Amino acid sequence: MTDSADQHSHSTTSEPSRVGITLETFILEGQLGNPAATGAFTSLLNQIGLAAKLVTSKVRRAGLARLLGYTGQTNVQGEAVQKLDEEANETLINVLARRNHCAAIASEELESIRVTSTDRRAKYLVVFDPLDGSSNIDVNISIGTIFGVLRKSSDSETTTEADFLKPGRDLIAAGYILYGSSTMFVITTGHGGVHGFTYDPTVGEFFLSHENIRIPNRASLYSINEGNTVHWTDDVKKWNAFLKDEDKSTGRPYGARYVGSLVADAHRTLMKGGIFAYPADKKSKKGKLRLLYEANPFAFIFEAAGGMATTGRERILDIEPTELHQRTPLVLGSPHDVRVFEEFVRGER
Ligand code: AFP
After folding, report:
1. Helix (H) and strand (E) counts for the chain?
2. Would you state the pLDDT for residue 128?
3. Which entry of 12, 76, 156, 309 is 20 to 30 Å from 190 by CA?
4. 289, 291, 325, 328: which to mutate for ligand 1, most atoms within 8 A of CB?
5. What is the spatial distance between Cα 58 and Cα 71, in angstroms, rounded to a whole number?
6. Averaged pLDDT in 10-residue chunks for the chain of 349 residues
């Protein structure tokens, strides 16, 4: 894979299928297709792939680790049992700091950015939510890791918070790892499509299983925390009632699906179509989800798959962030379904 500055892309539609190749080969083939690539981007993405393997192994043993933890807060190796989201966070930081490509990271788990290299050649920044949906860990429901990669614009030795305050359209890669019934790694560089890899735990590799994912133009599915109805604004209430009205010609009423883990809800929406919404409401006036770690990576992925991502009034990828942990309303999905939502917000319906 090559970053967008390299102006090369994986053409996916006219080439023979590559289903079955490993994530590492896929990333490497992208680099080999571009003589100008230095290998730094390839190496960075491979490190994220490694982190995904390490985190999935921890997630898969979470129930057991927790049980052992109860007996004295130490696991079989005699190590203190840590909270899984903290472990995932440290794993990502340690792996990204190991090679000299990542200058700094910003994590949903950390108050401020963490510099991982002061070498001027370290030209990438990584934002991530190490374990999204963590309130679902204890009940064995799908959770995930979300990440985005930015190119550092200044070539100074120091990296500051300002380097991270870039709109989502500046991302050069984004992806997520879904720890579901299987572990899936979904990634895009914006150009060249969105690709999904399924983890084979017996081999320890991610294999390309979903080549060039495209979201359907519309689908009769919606995903929202309906328990917030009382807090919603009138336009959102009206839109929600519209989806539940009966009209066979437009596929209504829509079916409701809500896991409460963004990675799971967004992944289902990407694969099956429809709409996911966490709008601003009277309780969360700016929305609940985080712009840098959650909304931007998913907006980047959805647009690359032919979908849309909006606040209802503004394209997510055009928001100019002012702070690291900024929240935003987030509406993701099939183009038709997202446009209908926007029409309700504008009062056109
Ligand atoms: P947790 O990490 O606290 O479980 O929050 C998950 C999340 O950030 C995101 O993954 C969900 O889409 C959203 O919050 C669910 O929020 P509600 O519980 O308010 O519906």
Report:
1. 8, 15
2. 98
3. 156
4. 289
5. 19
6. 50 70 91 80 95 94 60 50 83 95 96 94 95 86 96 85 97 97 96 95 96 97 98 98 97 98 98 98 96 98 98 98 97 98 97
The C-alpha atoms of residue 252 and residue 219 are separated, in whole angstroms, by: 10
Rounded-to-integer distance, Cα 5 and Cα 172, Å: 8
* Distance of alpha carbon 2 from alpha carbon 34, whole angstroms: 7
In this prediction, residue 62 carries a pLDDT of 76
Residues having CB within 6 Å of any atom of ligand 1: 132-136, 225, 260-262, 265, 288-289
Nearest CA to ligand 1 atom 15: 260
pLDDT value at position 29? 87
Test site for ligand 1: of 84, 142, 262, 325, most ligand atoms within 8 A of the Cβ: 262
* CA nearest ligand 1 atom 16, residue: 260
pLDDT (0 to 100) of residue 74: 53
Task: Fill in the amino acid letter for 110.
Answer: L
| Alpha-helical runs (H) found in the chain | 23-32, 40-60, 62-70, 84-98, 234-244, 262-272, 296-304, 335-345
Q: How far is CA 212 from the centre of its chain?
A: 17
Beta strands, E only, 221-274: 221-223, 255-256
Centroid of ligand 1 to alpha carbon of 127 (angstroms): 18
